[in-house]
Amino acid sequence: MFKPQYPTPDTYAPATIRPVPAPAAQTETAAPVPVPAGKNIALGGLAAQSPGTALALAAGGVAGVLALASVAVSLLLAVAVTAVALSVSGVVVLLLVRALRQELGR
Q1: pTM of the predicted model, to two decimals?
Q2: What pLDDT, on a 0 to 100 scale, did the predictor assign at position 4?
Q3: N or C, which terminus of the chain has less Cβ within 10 Å?
C-alpha cells in the first residue's frame, strides 16, 4: 500500500541533428552605390524623406526624456516621503522612551 509505483520509462529516443556544411558561396564584388551629394544620411536617410519624419523623431525623443524624468522624480519623491516618515516616527519613539523613563523613575 505504501510502496511507490514508478511509471515505466519512456522509449523515446531523441533525434540527433548533424549540421551539414554549407556549400561555398561565390562572392561577387559589386560596385559601391554612389550617394547623392545633397542627401542627409546622418540618420540612415530617415530624416531626408520628409520634414514630418524629422519632427516625429524629435517628438519621440522628447517624449522618452519626459517619461524617464517623471520616473526619476517619482523615485526621488518616494525616497523623500520615506525619509520624512522615518524621522517623524523616530521623534515619536524618542518621546515615548523619555516619558516611559520618567514614569519608572518616580
Answers
A1: 0.44
A2: 85
A3: N
